[in-house]
Amino acid sequence: MMFQKKIDRAMNWLKERNKSVNSSELNDFDPKAEWKAQESNKIELEKNDVLAIILSALIVFGPILLILIIMLILLFPSLRTPI
């Protein structure tokens, strides 16, 4: 195998490193701690961010909704007559 000496050296280094780490440190590690920290951070919006979000949603979903409304009107003629 290519680079077998480098792989062996890396594996030996990892074994030595893991021996020096206390077992209590390994048990204290919480993989979800970073996730929980990110969830607790509140995103602060600037002055016109909400308006920008609403406008971008209208630009994205507006044409789709318009096409669906036109299709409903064409497919169901009873919707054209006013009540």
Description of the structure:
The chain is an all-alpha fold. It is built from 4 helices and no strands. The mean pLDDT is 80.
Summary, kept brief:
The chain has 4 helices and no strands. With 83 residues, the chain is mainly alpha-helical.
Features:
70% helix, mainly alpha
Please give the structural blueprint.
Elements (H helix, E strand, L loop, with lengths): L3 H17 L2 H6 L4 H8 L8 H27 L8
Radius of gyration: 30 Å
Overall pLDDT metric: 80
The rough form would be described as elongated
User: Ranges with pLDDT <50 over ≥5 residues?
Assistant: none
Structural class: mainly alpha
Count of strand segments = 0
Q: Please provide the ordered H/E string of secondary-structure elements.
A: HHHH
**Number of alpha- plus pi-helical segments:** 4
| Termini gap | 80 Å
Strand content: under 5%
Largest sheet: none
